[in-house]
Amino acid sequence: MIMIAPSILSADFTNLLKDIRDVEQANVNMLHIDVMDGHFVPNISIGIPVIKSIKKITELPLDIHLMIIKPERYIEDFINAGGNYITVHAEACLHLHRVVESIRKMGGKPSVALNPATPLSVLDYIINEIDMVLLMTVNPGFGGQSFINGMEKKIWELKNKIQKENPRVRLQVDGGINMENISDVVKAGADIIVAGSAIFESRNVKETIYKLRKKAEGI
Ligand SMILES: O=C(CO)[C@H](O)[C@H](O)COP(=O)(O)O
Ligand SMILES: [Fe+2]
């Protein structure tokens, strides 16, 4: 089954409750929350207080994408705030294995993100310890960017690696996914689709999610 994870980065922050109710009614599988520190990426987004508030109003699993340097400083806080999947960037961790281990110990589902130019080999000695890989298909930092050409090949290569080395790992893709390319990324092997602008900037959020799911499932 293909999972859909709306990225609230493109939601209306003055009307977040409404946007969350809309995506819940469209049966999405998790909420993707982008945390940016202005150092790892050239943008600042939202943090722990907002996640705590979201946790109080939804049962959806919270998928926390940490685009922050040295995420080990805040793992406990993000788990206590209600994070379920905790994704750290391989490029942002000096001791990736230790960070993943601490996410697991604290009760989170550890996940590792890779920037578009980062080779899949960084996963070689960590793939057995994680629940998900987040493959960036844009350079992280902003919503609404275009999917980078050639990333389908990387998705396909990652899918093969996962099947060989740890088939329990989920493959999440994030960045520039829309109605036009969702079936290609699913064909290449993606299991979890993050979409921000394609969902929240559309005229009808619920209808867009239904259509994305139909395309993803080839119906
Ligand atoms: O991590 C991200 C940006 O760094 C976002 O999750 C991603 O860009 C989603 O937005 P869109 O679907 O509009 O590209
Ligand atoms: Fe993200």
Index terms:
219 residues; alpha/beta; TIM Barrel; 8 helices; 8 strands; 19% strand; binds ribulose-5-phosphate; binds fe (ii) ion; cobalt; manganese; zinc; Ribulose-phosphate 3-epimerase
* Tally of DSSP helical segments: 8
- How many angstroms separate the termini? 13 Å
Mean pLDDT, rounded to whole units? 98
Radius of gyration: 16 Å
User: Architecture in CATH?
Assistant: Alpha-Beta Barrel
Q: Give unreliable regions as ranges.
A: none
Count of strand segments:
8
Distinct bound molecules: ribulose-5-phosphate, fe (ii) ion
Spatial order of strands in the largest sheet: 1-8-7-6-5-4-3-2
Please tell me the total number of domains.
1
Function: Catalyzes the reversible epimerization of D-ribulose 5-phosphate to D-xylulose 5-phosphate.
Keywords: Carbohydrate metabolism, Cobalt, Isomerase, Manganese, Metal-binding, Zinc
Catalytic activity: D-ribulose 5-phosphate = D-xylulose 5-phosphate
Binding site for substrate: 7, 65, 141-144, 174-176, 196-197
Structural overview:
The protein has helices spanning 16-25, 48-57, 75-80, 96-105, 151-165, 182-188, 197-200, 205-216, and strands at 3-6, 31-36, 62-67, 85-89, 109-114, 132-136, 170-174, 192-195. It starts with a strand and ends with a helix. α5 runs parallel beside α6 (182-188). It is globular. It has an 8-stranded parallel beta sheet. It has a single domain (3-216), classed as TIM Barrel (Alpha-Beta Barrel), CATH 3.20.20. The protein is an alpha/beta fold. The longest helix has 15 residues, at 151-165. Bound molecules: ribulose-5-phosphate and fe (ii) ion. The site of ribulose-5-phosphate (5RP) has 22 residues, from β2, β8 and α7. Residues 7, 32, 34, 65, 174, 194 line the site of fe (ii) ion.
